[in-house]
Amino acid sequence: MEFFEKLTSLAAEVRLQGAAIQTEEATKNAFVMPFINTVLGYDVFDPHEVTPEFVCDVGTKKGEKIDYEIMKDGEVQIRIECKKIGESLNLNHASQLFRYFHVTSARISILTNGQVYKFFTDLDAPFPFRYWRRRLKL
């Protein structure tokens, strides 16, 4: 199955099941984990590839956790912060993700509510954490 077909299939599931989802945890289970597994191609059940609830303590803030860290060869590649489906992804959520940006070596961060995926990157360093101008809405 090609990338676009996988994405289209997941989008259909989001439209079909979205109204039944009541919590952030349910959003992660129903939509974000399938996105990581099917669309991105990472094994969500392999702790060497995907780590849920990764501790991202920043400065004096302790107990901060990112919902998912995606690893390759022991290095963090992508971090994902999730919100409940239907919840607006606002500047406060993006700033939360930004705080986590300096804790690991990940070059890509994703903010999602399972329906909308906003991608951030520092690929254009030296200015870290630029918002990729495209967003993915399932």
What can you see in these coordinates?
This protein is of the alpha+beta class and 138 residues long. The chain has a single domain (3-137), classed as tt1808, chain A. It has helices spanning 3-17, 24-39, 91-101, and strands at residues 50-55, 65-72, 75-82, 108-112, 116-121, 130-137. It has a six-stranded mixed sheet with strand order 1-2-3-4-5-6, with helices on both faces. A hairpin with a 3-residue loop joins strand 4 (108-112) and strand 5 (116-121). Helix 1 (3-17) packs antiparallel against helix 2 (24-39). It starts with a helix and ends with a strand. The relative contact order is 0.16. The model has no long low-confidence stretch (mean pLDDT 82).
List the helices and strands and how they pair.
Blueprint: H1 3-17, H2 24-39, E1 50-55, E2 65-72, E3 75-82, H3 91-101, E4 108-112, E5 116-121, E6 130-137
Parallel strand pairs: 3-4
Antiparallel strand pairs: 1-2, 2-3, 4-5, 5-6
